[in-house]
Structures are given as C-alpha cells and as structure tokens.
Protein 1
Amino acid sequence: MEAAAKLLATARHVLFLSGAGISAESGVPTFRGAGGLWRQFRAQDLATPEAFKDNPMLVWEFYHYRRETVRQCKPNRAHMAVAAFQRRLSASGRRADVVTQNIDGLHQAGGATDVVEMHGSLWRVKRVKERGFVEEPNKVWEDKTQLFEKGLGAPDVDDVKLRKEDLPRAATGELLRPAVVWFGESLDRRVTDEIEILLHQCDVLVVVGTSAIVYPAAGYAQVVQRRGVPVVVVDIEPTPAESHATHFLQGRAG
C-alpha cells in the first residue's frame, strides 16, 4: 500500500481503468456469477442487436430496470477518491484520466471529468441504424427522463408488459435503442484511438474493479507494462490483471 501511494504521489500522468467492481460497491448489479440473472435471462443474452431485433420490448424492459436501479445508486468513496485525485493532480500541473467499462455514469456523478466511457452510457439513446458506440453529434444523445413507468422491468415477473407502440422513437419515427455497446458490436474507433493515446502517455496505470477478461481492456495492463510503466491493480479478489501488476492491492475499491 505504501509503495503504491508513493508511486502515485510522484506520477505526472495517472490513468485509471475501472470496471464493474467499483460500481458494485454502490449497489449496481454486475449480472455475473451465481444469481446474476434478470428474470431467467443472462445479460449477454439480451445485450445483443439480435435480441433487440427479436424482442425490443423485452430488451427495453431490461435496460429500464437497469436505469431505475442505477438511479437509486450513489457514487461511493472510490468514485469520490478518483475525482479528488484528478482535481489534485490538475491543480499541480499534472494529469489524471479515467477510462471506464461501466455505463452507469457514477464517475461523473462523483465529480470526475472527461471520463472515457468505453461501452457507452445507460443515459443515452440512439437510432437503431447506428450500430455500436458512436459519439458523432446528432447520432447519440442523453435522455435521463423517465422513459417508462416505475416498476416496469421488475426482475420478479415473467411477462413483458411494454407494448411496441410505447417504445421510444426519434422525431422521425425511427425506433431508439440504448446507446451502449452490445455483444457482437465494435467500439467506436475514435474512442479506442483516444484510449491508445492515453495508454502511451501515462506513467502509472491504476486498474480498479475489473476482471480484465473482456478485450480490449483486458490487454491494457500488458500494453503499458511493455513500456516499463508501473501498474497498480485494486480488486476484491485476484484477477488476470494481477500478473501484470507492479502492486496488487486486494480489497474494496472504496
């Protein structure tokens, strides 16, 4: 712990990479492991273009449930600490950036700025024709309104209550979908390019609460390690990223 703290105290450019573990401490479901189902479905069975095409009502109920759940969650001490560290480095002419695999927006709610959201956001929507994660103006926009009635998407019911005519649509009438990256879709090239730049600029990488299984994020620790950049891994349990860690701190992120 002390060695990692000294490392961060002298760093000029720290890059944080966060995953589901940091938000789990705020009560955000991870939909992984035992009990990780919504109704009888795995998240990866619903988070696909094919699932949305087959049953957009079911998929929107799932994402409405996720939005309503996250709406009740607050940033935890880890989110706050990252934001405070970012401000402290900025005040001293240094820099800290945040790249997150999460789609909940809790880093921003905790005060972090210029957060790179690899997989999009629960709070944005886009037209169905826009595949994957895009950031181009007018192709994706934020919508934090209550899209559907409260309680819709409850995990303890079996039937789909949402009707097709109730689905959100653009002014042109085109069906809208959550602006997140689904399984089988690619990340926006501009986002991956930005992350590559940060990986080659940072002098410390801090990996927080991610299993380091899903690529490309799973390879980031190895990328910076090849440059001789130290890697600090913080997780409640050992992860594959630990093999590339200069310092592994086991425990809660917050």
Note: Residues 10 and 206 are 14 Å apart (CA to CA).
Protein 2
Amino acid sequence: KQWYQRRVRGMKRDCGGAAGILAAFKATVECGFSENLHAVLCIAENSVGPRAAVPDDIHILYSGKSVEINNTDAEGRLVLGDGVAYARKDLNADIVLDMCTLTGAQGITTGQHHAALLSNNAQWESCAVSAGLSSGDMLFPIVYAPELHFSEFKSSVADMKNSVANRSNAQSSCAGLFIGSHLFDDFSKPSPIVWLHIDMAYPVHVGERATGWGPALLLTLFGRYSTSGLLSNIAPVLPVDQASKRPKHDEMC
C-alpha cells in the first residue's frame, strides 16, 4: 500500500507525452499539412500483474536488440524504443521526434518550465529551442554524448540494460539515448535520420493537473509545413537543402 501511494498514485499525468502528440497531430491535420505525417502512440500500462516485467527478464525489442530489465519502473522507454524502431523500419521516417514524461531527473536538469531536448542534429536542436520560445512550450538542450554515456546501460547478458548504472551521470541524457539506440543501429556511424527527443516530465503538470504542454511547440516547430498562415509565420526557419531551397526532411513521426 505504501509503495502504491508513493509511486503509482497520481501517475495519470505520465500519459502527457502521448496526449501531447495526439493533440498536436489532431490540430496539425485540422490546420492542414503539406507533407507526410505520422503519429505513433507508445503506451504502457503501469500496473502489477502476472504479465508484468520482472527484474532479470530479457526482452527482445522491435529493433531486434535485447534488453535486460534491471528497473521495472523504467517501463515507458521500452515501448518508446519500439515506437522509434517502427518509425524507421515501417514508416521510413527521416525526422523522428519522440516526446515523453521519461525521467524525474528532467526536473533537476532543466526545471519545471523547460523540457529537456536531446538531439543528434545541432541545426534542428536550435530550431526546436526557437519554436519553444515562440510557442511558450520552452525547451533547453541537454548533453548528447553517446560515446560517453551509453556505456551506463552495459549488460553481461544482453545488448543493454533498461536503466543506468550510475544515476548521477547525466541521467536524462542517458535515458534518451536508450530510446535512440533502437532508432540507430550504431551511434558511432552517421545517420541521415534527424532525431529529437523531448523529456517533458515536469512541464506537463502543476500539482495534480495537466498543463497541456507540447502541442503548441510541435505546431510551431513544423509550422513551415502547415497551410495555416499564422503557423507559417511564427515557425522557425528549418535547415534547407541549398540545391532545392526546401527543407531536407519531409516526414516526421
């Protein structure tokens, strides 16, 4: 009972990422969108039962990589890993944005008002920060250094564990890298895929109530693809292909 009261009660706000993606997708379609757009909702039921994950389980995720469970409270990243792998393998997306209430460490890293942003592309990172300032759903970049941080997930029996060894070592960055590892085959190799990971665990709520954080950010960030004049005007200038004078990437998930 004490564990339930401390860890599970009030977790309705933990759906903030999926809720934000769904609301943004609905609004984007209603405003008009000129490119291919997909919304993938990565949803896990956080409950105790006979089919629940237990410590020392090894899961094979959709990416084909194996994961040793060393923290059953790090369940959301498992379905998020499947989601980004699906975006790459089945949807052939070349921009993948995931948004989730991933870590309590996000609040320590970037606070109550700024979500944490992890990206493999500095130009898109800058665009996202600009969109945050314009929309009011603010972001702040966190360290992207897989060569230094991904070893936190080292496992003797699987490709990785699902939680870090050292919780004091850039925990929000590490958690994001877990998701990214199922999008990219190898962090050391260049990838044409642009990846934006947004951890918005704290901005998503005030007390027990939701703030609605997220949809305004996404509508603004991708406003250049919108047929809405308002969104087009406030959207940041996206990285462009100099040969075609249009954004390099025309699909997001």
Note: The chain is about 35% helix and 15% strand.
Protein 3
Amino acid sequence: GGKSNAYFAKTHDDRYIIKQLSRSEASSMGEGGVGAAYFRYIRSALDQGSPTALTKILGIFQVQVEHVQARHHEKNMKLVFIVVENIFYNRKMSLTYDLKGSRRSRYNPQAAASNDQNVVLLDENLLETMSEAPILVEEAAKRQLEAALYNDSEFLAELGVMDYSLLLGVDAAQGTLVVGIIDYVRQYTWDKQLETYVKSSGVLGGGSKQPTIISPKLYKKRFRRAIAHYLVTVPGPFTHSTSMAYLQQFMAEDQDDERAFSL
C-alpha cells in the first residue's frame, strides 16, 4: 500500500491489519530498536495511566516462502510482517484522514472527483474544507488528545523516528472521532536524511513548502502544532487536570523553537 507498494491487508474479521515491512523498517524493529522500546513504553503508559495514541502492535512475524522462481533458479524468500489493531473495527467512517502536519504533496485530488467514503484524505484536503466544515472537538477531549500526542511524539523523537501519521476517522453516525498514530517504525536513517536534503534544496520542486521528511525533532514539533490547528475546539467540561501540565510544557517548548520551522 501507499508509495512503498508494500503488501497490506486486513484479517477476515476486520480486527487487525497486516503490513509488510521494508528491510530498513524490519531492522528498526529488531533488538535494541523501536520494537523493544515500544513495548516498554506501552507498559509504562499503562502502569502510570499516561495517555497514548499509538496504534497497538500485536506482533511482528517473519514468513519464509520456499522455492520462489527467480529468473533461471529457485530461491527462498523471507518477508517480515507487522500486525496492528484496526482502530476502525466495527465502525463506518464517513471521512478518513492521514495527517502528517505537512503541506507538501499532501493533497488527494480523488476527494473532489469521488464520493467514495473509502478515499483517504490528506492535510491539504482538510485545510481546504476547514472554513466550511471544521472538525469540532470538545475541549477536554482535545486536551487529552494533545497530551497523548505530546507523549508519543516525544518518545518517537527520542528513537529517531519520523514520517508517522495521525489516522483520523469521522464516525458521523455515532458523532465521534477515532484517532491513532500509525507508521511509526521508520527511523531517520541516511536515506531519509538524503531525501530531506534533496527536497529542501528545491531540486524536485515544492516551492517554499517544507518537505514532509525532516529531522525527528522538527517533525515532532510540526506534527503537534498542525494537529492542534486542524481540530477546532468547542466548549466543554475540562475533566483531565493532568493534561494541562503536558500542554503547558508543549506550548513552552514550541515557543522556544517557533523560528526553527513553519507549517
């Protein structure tokens, strides 16, 4: 699926998603990498009651396909798959967004040409409709989400992870939003650093828009600020006092670095 053309599927009961990992992603999930740190982080979040929006990983599996025909000989092929929860299980989404906090190459033209509810919209699609059809979130829920995004993006930045997204679904029938951070297994390796350099240079176009791929620290900050901007707050009771501490720290950090990047 996506630009990588990796294998992507759902289980028969629609509860789980199976995705093939690239060699670099599989390496990142190995011992001493993102995988072990992820399970420690989730255990700590559960023990401390800290909010998190990371989609849950069920497991990572290696499949060996034997006797694959390759030109004039046969060989064995090893594939690595990750199994994660389907956050949209048993729900019907009227709108689905994949949000990275970037405005460069983040527009899906199929949105205007199709009424298909399965079309995944991107950042610029959301910004295009914000004035007429904003996504409204009660104050307490938004603060809780921002606290979760603060925790998760801090954790991912420490691991050198970037290019993750917030998957956001609008369940109009139930009047709810369903969210989860996805694709958070890719570390900022040399090839991604090269991609940042090339796109920042303007060789591939893009004008003044910042490239999608930037350093994990800057990605974290851009991601937080963009999501806060995308969701419009409506009045509601504030019930999570601990969230304010996260937000105050988040706001202070962004003020210190506001000149480092722009949306």
Note: The longest helix spans residues 139-158.
Protein 4
Amino acid sequence: MSSPQETYDAMAAAGAAKIMMPWHKQAIQGFMAGAYVSLGALFANLMEANFTWYKGDQFEVAPGLANLVGGAVFPIGLIAIFMTGANLYTGNCMYLIPSFINGTVPRGRAIGWLAFSWLCNFAGAGFVAYFMAYLGGWTSKDPVQAFVVHNAVKKIDLKWGVAFLRGIGANWLVCLAWWQAISSKVRVTTTRGSVGVQTVRYLGVHWRSKRCRVPERYLS
C-alpha cells in the first residue's frame, strides 16, 4: 500500500491528466463509466429482487440479506470503471480537489470537465437502463419489475434533505473506495477494497422497506 502522501500525489497526477484529456476521449470514457455503473446497479437489482416472496397483493423483502448480496454485486461496475480508466462523476469530484488546491489546471476547464462527465455518465446509464434493462426485458417481469418500480417510487418520494444527506454518505464511500484503489499496488487488493467498501455502502446507506405494495397492473 502507498502512503497517504503517495496516494495524494498519484491522485493529483491522475486528476490533472484526466482534466486535460481531449474532449472526445472524455465523452467516450464518461459514457462508458455511466454504462458500467448502470450495469452494476442492474445486476444488483436482479439479485436483490430474488430475495422476495408474495403474500397476497404484497411481497415481502429480506432487506438485510438482499442488501448484502446487492452490495457484493454492485461493485462489478466500479471495478470495471477503475480498471479501464473511465470517468465517473463521483470519483472525478475527488480527483478535482488537488487540481484546485495546487492550481495545476485551469479552473474553468476543471469545472467544465466535471459537468461534462456528469452528462456523459447520465447518457451511458440511460442507454443501459433503456436499451438493455427495459427493451431487453430484464425488468419487464415480476418480481424484478415490481421491485424496481417500488424502489424508484420510494426514492422519488424522499424529502430533499434526506436524499441530499444520503447522497453525501453514498458518494463519500465511493470516493473512499477510489482512494483505497489508488493506494493499492496490487490489483487483487484493489478489487477487494472496492467490493468491501461498496458492500458497506449498500448496508449502511441504501435502504429497503420490509413490505412493498405492488401496483395491481403488475399482478395481472
């Protein structure tokens, strides 16, 4: 493992290189990062939905076990992002800090890079969600469909303050996983660190209600 100073220096160098990368390459890397994290989320939902069982017009969820399995599967997307060097907005927020502090890159370009990575991530995630999850039929049948719809509705119904704080907690842990991956000198350790932190993220920050009301249209 690298020392904290060595990790910071490596992160600063990587961040400067990412920020100054040509825009067309950033578009591709941002799109792929969104696709990878969306695939991780899709796999996690497919696995978690199988820890459900019907009881009349409702289905029960085993939240602890479902979160544990989802937390073990979701990091597949983050591992792919780190191994391929793709640009994930969450990690880019961390990469941005040393460049701002050290003044190694133009600040206007750094902010533009951050916004551009968010847009490209959204495009990549939307591509996977629509063309693979929706049109591909992965989320068109119960219990996956009811599970995904229920989670989407609950997240939308969160109060802004609650969503904001949970977003900070979740992305803080993503950045921690990135820091551990950068500090590691062995890829096996890198992968293990990412899986471990993200499993904690699912258990501690993500939530699942115990009883889920399934809309009637999904029971026909």
Note: The longest strand covers residues 52-55.
